[in-house]
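Re: weekly structure request thread

Next one in the queue (205 aa):
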Amino acid sequence: MTDRQPPVTASETLTLWLDPVCPFSWNTARWLSTAADEAGFNIEWRLMSLAILNAGRELPEQQQARMRDSRQVGRLMVALRDELGADAIAKAYFAFGHRYFDESAALDDDLVKHVLAAAGAHHVTAAALSDASLDAAVDDSHQASQDALGEASGSPLITIDGHTVFGPVLTSVPAADKTSAIFEAVATLVGTSEFTQLERPRTHA
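Done, posted below.
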């Protein structure tokens, strides 16, 4: 027997900030979604932007292409949020991620049509990808993520009970039987004011 209580109750909501084109965030999002289903808490899905974070930096061509995707998908996500509400981000993101990461699909009209259909959009079109008028909304959401953490950082960020950290960075989705235990460990660390960092090489077995 133990008196220890789960760090997040069914009535609580945590925030996941992510850039939709970040592969590590794709793993974190799927793991966290499963944890939420098991524990009964809610996830607030919020956007940050690696394109903004890396603006002005010299990057290899492959990363430059990913940053272009970041900027365009960020526009699409805020357009969907504006039409359908914040819940549309999760629907659109999972539809996008499955094609973009799991099937290595290019960011093209077919992928955008798939995302729009999954989100239930009526007015947003593929034109959102190149609509610079949406950049201010992306910028605002990104800045909110950095303000939540208190310094510049990448994707993903997670906020639990008002405390924000970078990560967890996952190289793949953990086994299902470890989902809840990993979440409780993460939530405990996030809620520990003395905790600042825990890291190991990504090549570690």
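The CA atoms of residues 95 and 114 lie 7 Å apart. Residues 1-5 have pLDDT under 50 and may be disordered.
Next request, please.
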